[in-house]
Amino acid sequence: MEMRAGKTLLAAPLLALALILLPLTAVYASTPSFNIPEAYPTKAGYYIGESVTIYVKLEWSDLSQNYTLDIDLYETVNNTKVLDLGSETIPGAGGSVSGYKELTYSSLTGLTDEPGTREYEVRVIDTGSGLLVASKKLSITVAEASIALSVAWDDASGDRQIDVNEQVTLTCFITWAFVNTSKTDSLYVSVDGGQEQLVDTVSITAGSGSAQKTWITAFDSSGVHTVKFTLKDASGDEEAVKSVSLTVGQAAESAPVRASILDLVKQNIYLIIIVLACIGAAVIIAKYR
Ligand SMILES: [Ca+2]
């Protein structure tokens, strides 16, 4: 009687524990779950008005029924839905179904109206229960257009010394990024603040790109000359400017100086020999006197 009671006393908590744990483990093992391990825009930066592509990886596990999911894009600061990304039907009937789907949402508009970085969140809602089952934050960066010029030069002889009247080839590199509409700009050049002259037109394409234009000149005077390239849009507004200073004539000035010293020595070589001989004779006379 006492032993029975002891057994009962021991069995009761075990049974209670089993009753608590059994359904817990069963529920834990088969809880359907959804997850977004990755969600991001496919470009690091967009120009104003550019359409956006968002990649989303949606994972699920332990489904035992089919789910219809509503996928939305929210703007997190104001917690407002900005885009309905559609819906996905995930097959789960049959039990413990796991898998993933890679979703690409392209041509999304209205996300690049102004420059800056904005935070968004992809939200997945189970249409059956109305509950949020997965979410993932992402940010979209919109950049303002930038156009830059850089200039390189080559002299005709290739010695990096520009002589007076030596031909110099200037190459102007035009690079741009986040330009939102294709357009035709014009590249002008001016020397020492003089009259601007057209080098060529430049086709600026939407997004990013580069072009290069060459301009050949020569300088008829020595000294420092400033060459200024200016890129202008169709209405004549300056879009980018780059000036370079070129030193002309240093080599041409120093070379004749060296040549004339040599010439002087050559022309007066007999006089120099006589003078040196006289000095030598004077030294000898002084020594033996
Ligand atoms: Ca040269």
Question: What can you see in these coordinates?
Answer:
This protein has 289 residues and is of the alpha+beta class. The chain folds into 3 domains: 29-143, Immunoglobulin-like, CATH 2.60.40; 146-248, Immunoglobulins (Immunoglobulin-like, Sandwich); 252-280, no CATH class. Helices cover 23% and strands 52% of the residues. The protein has helices spanning 2-30, 250-267, 269-288, and strands at residues 33-41, 46-47, 52-63, 67-75, 80-90, 97-108, 116-126, 131-143, 146-155, 168-179, 183-191, 197-204, 207-217, 223-232, 238-248. It has a 5-stranded mixed β-sheet with strand order 2-8-7-4-5, with no helix packed on it. A 4-stranded antiparallel β-sheet has the order 12-11-14-15, with no helix packed on it. A hairpin with a 5-residue loop joins strand 14 (223-232) and strand 15 (238-248). The longest helix is centred in the first third of the chain and has 29 residues, at 2-30. Bound molecules: calcium ion. The site of calcium ion has 7 residues, from loops.
Relevant terms:
single chain, 289 residues, alpha+beta, Immunoglobulin-like, five-stranded mixed β-sheet, four-stranded antiparallel β-sheet, 15 strands, elongated, binds calcium ion
Summary, kept brief:
With 289 residues, this protein is of the alpha+beta class. The chain has helices at 2-30, 250-267, 269-288; strands at 33-41, 46-47, 52-63, 67-75, 80-90, 97-108, 116-126, 131-143, 146-155, 168-179, 183-191, 197-204, 207-217, 223-232, 238-248. It contains three helices and 15 strands.
